[in-house]
Amino acid sequence: MSAQYLNPATKAKFQEQVWALVRRIPVGRVMTYGQIAEMLAPPGEMNMQSYLAFGARWVGGAMAACPEDIPWQRVINAKGMVSARAGAQIQRELLQAEGVIFDDRGRVDLSRYRWNGE
After folding, report:
1. CATH number of 3-113
2. The pTM is what?
3. First and final CA of the chain: distance in angstroms?
4. What single-letter DSSP state applies at residue 74?
5. What is the pLDDT of residues 81-112, one digit of tens each?
6. Vertex 27, ends 25 and 28: CA angle to 5°?
């Protein structure tokens, strides 16, 4: 089941949960799309196994539609990289301004910068 099959109320609720979690990520820390998905309950009646297969993409969809007050730059991919897309350079610059260091391969050390929701 993909996000397009969720009813609008379920999709909106899921997005709000994603955004609420992302708002809590401290300055200079990051979370991955999959990590966020794992921390949230599956939307609607979906079972956990099906949800985890698509959850990271759904978090990405929520982030693509996020309001301006969301620190969107703090969500990166599981490789510790900014995903290639429009705005990627801005995201990297915002993270660097927060003190996040990228290696010469464009990766963030997740063992150092990942926030676990504590």
Report:
1. 1.10.10.10
2. 0.90
3. 31
4. G
5. 999 888 899 999 999 999 999 999 999 999 99
6. 105
DSSP H helical ranges for 24-115: 33-39, 48-64, 88-97, 110-113
CA atoms lying within 13 Å on the CB side of residue 31: 26
Q: How far is CA 26 from CA 16, 36, 72, 82, 94, in A?
A: 18, 14, 12, 17, 13
Domain locations along the chain: 3-113
Q: Is 83 left (phi over 0), alpha (psi -120 to 50) or beta?
A: beta
- In this model, does residue 4 exceed pLDDT 70? no
Contact predicate 78/34, CB 8 Å? yes
